[in-house]
Structure formats: structure tokens, C-alpha cells
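# step 3/5: fold
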Amino acid sequence: MQVDNIIILGVNHKTAPVAIREQLAFSGDSALPFSELMALEGCTECCILSTCNRVEIIVVSRDPDKTSQQLRPFLFGKSAVSLQDTEKYSYLYRGEEAITHLFRVGASLDSMIVGEPQILGQLKQAYKASSENNCTGAILNRFLHKSFSVAKRVRTETNIGGSAVSISYAAVELAKKIFGDLQGKTVMLVGAGEMAELAAEHLITQGISQVVVVNRTFENAVKLAQRFNGKAAGLDDLIPQLEHVDILISSTGATDLVLKKDDVKPVMNQRMNRPLFLIDIAVPRDLDEKLNKLDNVYLYDIDDLTHVVDINKAERDKEAGRGERIVIEETMKFLQWLQGMEVTPTIVELRKKADAICRAEIDRTLCNIKDLSPKAQKSIEKMAGAIANKMLHDPISYMKSDHPGDRGEKLAFIRQLFALDNDDKS
């Protein structure tokens, strides 16, 4: 197995805009063109990873030069991208570069948001589809499983996924700092902004028990409330509902303040000063900045959340550096395994030839020795095997200890030296 036989061709959010990526995306396992890919000259194993941010083809080939030439026409064949632009929008890695790349992808070091967890699940799903279509073998099985374990190691040994790097998730992290446990809390959405919805989704995963949606248009409030199995209310009910709410997320398109300090002050008395967490994601702002002067009221606006995100991104970048070092280490380990795969057939043939010679000479010798006990025969056989093993030790060590770039020449030398490719005429 030559290291360069592993090939990855792909496009991602760094190399191609969404208008290009969407032309190449494969929707669903049934649409994955495994048979066409396996029909490419030299291709022996393959896997296809298709997400909103990347499309990658992972291939093992017995003729990597020919297969590499066919991969771009295969990937871009049904798109409107011109032949000369296919190289501009894509990347092609072979051997060690391909191994490092996939390990980085699985560990989310190559993601738009470094540390996001979704890519590993998507990679596992891609492997499952490929395996079910009988497109993986010894190399890809080991390679992809190794990418999963590398991703796990990066997450275990670094804090790459531990800091919020989206506005919506930062809001949730701040809520947890204020309340600790979010189990049983109630959240109110004012307006129907996308970031407010995302924050609500994150909050629900943390155990929020109730979602109340308030909107100027009651029908829109009902639709959104149904999505979260919550209840809807009109804008006029905003202040009365505050008595029962723990977290409020506002993202309306209003030009004036939706909630003022004087509106909330009497409600806090009714709440017995229970903490109230307010998140203002609207621009212009929905919530009166003076609300922060009330006891047990915690108001954060979009700038506060952005500041949290920026700090956390810097923290993730630092952790990503530790992740990169893990990827380099694991790449070296996988290369060693591949090199062993390359050497194994020659070692097997060498031992087989030595065993055959030993067997022939033992049989010839025993024919000429009369009245030899079974124990003595066994001793002769053991001695012959020990001599063969000691003779083979140095050439086998010589093959295993070589650098990958020279391995092909050294293997060819050993095969020629021991006549492994010649017909056995003895």
C-alpha cells in the first residue's frame, strides 16, 4: 500500500462560495453516486462527505495518478463550473496531506466555526453510507475510524468545544451563569428573529420547561409557539406575562423601545425579586438600557454578546493549536500503519520462501538419517526455523525502519535480492 494511494478532492467554505457548493452537493444517501465513483480507473475504495459547507471525495486507488485526473471532472461534471475554474474552487490532497486533512476535518479544526460538533456526526454518516454500499475496505475502514478517534482525542484533551462562539449560544451560556440550572425555567420570545429562535432551541436542550411567544401579529406568535410546544400571546400581554418568565429574548423590528424600566419595576415586586434575565438581540434595541439598574434584572444587548463571542473565539483558537499538534502526532501513527501494510506482503512472501526452503532441506536430511527419534526430528525442525528467523531478522528490520519516500525502492531491492518475483524452479 503506497501512502500516496489515499486521495481527497473537495470544495469547502474557504475555496468556493455557496453558489458553487450547492451545485456539487449530494442530497441523501440514495443520491450518492458510489457506482460511478468506483468505476473510475484505479479506484478501489471511496467515501463521499457532503454538508452545507463542504463536499469531499475520499478515495483509495491502485493508480493514484490516473484516478486523480478523473476526480475533478467527476465532481464538477454536472455543474456549470468551467474546466479551468475547477482547480480554483477545489483542493486535492494525496498521502500524508490527505490524512492530515481528514483528521482536521473530523476534529472540526477545518470548520467555519472551529470546534463545532456536527461535522463528526456527518463524517460518521458518510462512512456508514459508503460501508453499506460496499465501497470501503481495509484502508478506508481503518482511516475513517482513526479520524473518529482523533476527533474524540482532540475534544477530550482540549477545550475546543467548551466556549460559546455564536450569539445565540452565548446567550444561553450567560443564562446558565445567572441561574445555574435551567431546568424548569420559562423563556419568552418577543418577536420572531432568527437568532432569538436559535437561542430558544439551545435553551430547550438545557431543560427549559416553557416557551411563551409574544408578537405584534398574533398569528405569527401562534406558528412559532407551536414549533416549541409553547403558548402564544399578543404584544399587549407582554408585561402581564413577565411575572411568570425567567428569561426574555427580544428581537423585534420595532423602532421604539418595547420594554422600559418603569414597566418592569412593579413586576419585580410581584415576582418577589426573582432574577429576570433579558437578552436584547434587536438593532435598534428593544429594551431600555436603564433596566440594568433594577435589582435582580440582568440585561445584555447584542454588543455584550458579541464581546463574549470574541473572547471565546480567541480561547478556541488557542485550544485549536493544541488540537493541531494532536493531529500531527496521529498522522504519524497512521503513516506507520500504512507503511506496515506496504511491507506486509513482502514479509509474508519472504517468510513463506524461507519456510519452504527449510521444509525441503529438513525432509532431504531426515531421509538420510535412520532411527531418529521423534524428539530429535522436532529439534532439527526447530533449529532450522530458528536459523531462518535469525537470517530474516535484518532484512525485515531494514524494510520496516525505512522512510516512506524510499520504501518502494528498498522493497524492490529485497524482492530482487531474494528472487520473490521469479518463478520458483527449485
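# step 4/5: annotate
The CA atoms of residues 141 and 292 lie 56 Å apart.
# step 5/5: archive (pending)
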